[in-house]
Prior knowledge:
It is built from 6 helices and no strands. It has 168 residues and is mainly α.
Amino acid sequence: MATGEKPRREKQVPKNPKTVTRTELKKMPPVQRARLLAYEQPSKDMAASLQITQSRLKEFAQKSVGDVPQMVPDPEEERKMKVIGQLKAAEARSRIRLTRLRFQCMRAQELNHLIACQPTARDAIRLEVFLPTRPATELSPDPLDRIQRAQVERLLEDDVGYLTNRIA
């Protein structure tokens, strides 16, 4: 460079990541190459072959629609299929129920083992309270109606026994 000359700046051309040369394309791993080429426009040969394939598929679909005879469902066959479906559903429910019971049993055994391995009785009781071995079952509904419940409460409140001690 001479003393009075300005340094030449090379014009930087921003490289579009989607434009890749053939040599760079060949150097890429197959997965990356496939990702890059998935968004490229297909070549003329490829587009023509796609067009031919699509037209053949449409022709085949039109021919196959006319060839298939309409089958009238047999009511006896429908009933059998419905029964088979119900049986399969019952078997699936049974398998789920057995799996649930097996899991609950294994969980209870594991918790009992953990409780038994506690160093002190206080720790064992605390663990047993906080981790019950069986899930809490819902309380069953009251078998007594309102009138029967009132009679039972009256009998329980009778401390002397006027209602139960009957001398004939």
